[in-house]
C-alpha cells in the first residue's frame, strides 16, 4: 500500500469542476482549490471528480503498476485507497495550501501550491465546459 500512497502523491497531490458563472480565471482557481481541499478531506470520489478523465487514467494506471490488485478499478476507490494510506497530519497540510501563480489562457492554465517544502506545479483544463485539474508534478525545494 505504500506504493499506492507514493503514486497518489506523485500524480494527484495537487479539480467537480468549478460551477456556474464567473471568469475562466475564477473557474480555474476554484477547480485547483477544490481539488486540494478534497485531497485534504481524504475524499477519493470528490478528488477524482475534480480531475480530468486523462489524469484519472494516468493516476489509476500508475497505481496499478505499483499494485496489481487495483487493476480494473475506477479512480474513486483507487484514490480512496491511496488517500487512506497517507497520515492525517500530512493530509491536513492541504487545508493550508494556497493556490499561487495561476495563469489561464483559453481553455487551459497552470498553478502552483506549496505543502511544507514541496512545491506542486499543476495544470487545469476545461473538460465538458468545466474546469478540472489535468496534471500536477511535485518537486522538492524552491521550485
Sequence-ordered SSE layout with sheet pairings:
Blueprint (H helix, E strand, L loop, with lengths): L1 H11 L11 H17 L3 H6 L3 H14 L8 H10 L3 H5 L7 E6 L2 E8 L2 E10 L2 E11 L3
Antiparallel strand pairs: 1-2, 2-3, 3-4
What general form does the structure show? globular
Q: What average pLDDT do the residues reach?
A: 83
Indicate the percent of residues in helices: 40-55%
Strand percentage lies at 15-25%
What is the number of beta strands?
A: 4
What structural category arises from helix and sheet content?
Answer: alpha+beta
Describe this structure as you would to a colleague.
This protein has 143 residues and is of the alpha+beta class. The chain has six helices and four strands; from the N terminus they run ααααααββββ. The chain has helices at residues 2-12, 24-40, 44-49, 53-66, 75-84, 88-92; strands spanning 100-105, 108-115, 118-127, 130-140. The chain has a four-stranded antiparallel beta sheet with strand order 1-2-3-4. β3 (118-127) and β4 form a beta hairpin. α4 (53-66) crosses α5. The protein starts with a helix and ends with a strand. The model is unreliable at 5-21 and 139-143 (pLDDT under 50).
Please give a quick description of this structure.
With 143 residues, the chain is of the alpha+beta class. The chain has helices at residues 2-12, 24-40, 44-49, 53-66, 75-84, 88-92, and strands at residues 100-105, 108-115, 118-127, 130-140. Helix 1 packs antiparallel against helix 4 (53-66), helix 1 (2-12) crosses helix 5 (75-84) and helix 4 (53-66) crosses helix 5.
Amino acid at each position: 500500500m505504500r506504493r499506492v500512497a507514493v503514486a497518489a502523491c506523485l500524480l494527484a497531490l495537487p479539480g467537480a469542476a468549478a460551477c456556474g458563472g464567473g471568469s475562466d480565471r475564477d473557474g480555474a482557481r476554484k477547480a485547483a482549490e477544490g481539488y486540494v481541499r478534497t485531497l485534504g478531506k481524504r475524499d477519493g470520489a470528490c478528488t477524482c471528480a475534480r480531475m480530468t478523465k486523462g489524469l484519472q487514467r494516468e493516476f489509476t494506471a500508475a497505481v496499478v503498476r505499483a499494485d496489481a490488485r487495483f487493476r480494473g478499478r475506477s479512480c474513486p476507490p483507487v484514490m480512496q485507497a491511496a488517500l487512506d494510506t497517507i497520515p492525517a497530519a500530512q493530509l491536513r497540510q492541504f487545508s493550508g495550501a494556497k493556490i499561487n501563480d495561476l495563469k489561464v489562457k483559453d481553455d487551459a492554465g497552470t498553478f502552483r501550491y506549496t505543502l511544507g517544502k514541496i512545491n506542486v506545479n499543476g495544470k487545469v483544463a476545461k473538460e465538458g465546459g468545466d474546469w478540472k485539474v489535468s496534471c500536477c508534478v511535485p518537486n522538492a525545494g524552491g521550485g
